[in-house]
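Review form for a predicted model. The reviewer records the input and the model, then writes brief findings.
Reviewer: anonymous (R2)
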Amino acid sequence: MNASLRMVVLSLSVLGLSACAGMEARSTYVPEPQEPSIMDPDEAYIAYVERIARRRGIEVQWVNAPTKSARQVAQESGQPR
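Model under review:
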C-alpha cells in the first residue's frame, strides 16, 4: 500500500512539473501586423469627432463606428488608387 501511494505521488509530481515546463511565456509576444481593411474603424475621424464633442460637453456613444474608405485603405497599403 505504501509503495503504491509513493508511485501515485511521484507520477503526479512528474505530471505537474512537465505541465509547468510546457507553458510558454507570452510577455514578449507581438502579434503579426495586419493588412489595412475597409472594415477597420476610422480612428482619426472618431478621435476628431470625440475631441469636438468633449469641448462642447457632449458624450458620444458610437452605435456604428465609421469605417475607413477604400481610398484610405489604398493610401495606407501603398497601392495606387
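Findings: Helices lie at 2-21, 43-56, 70-77.
Further findings: The mean pLDDT is 81.
Recommendation: see findings above.
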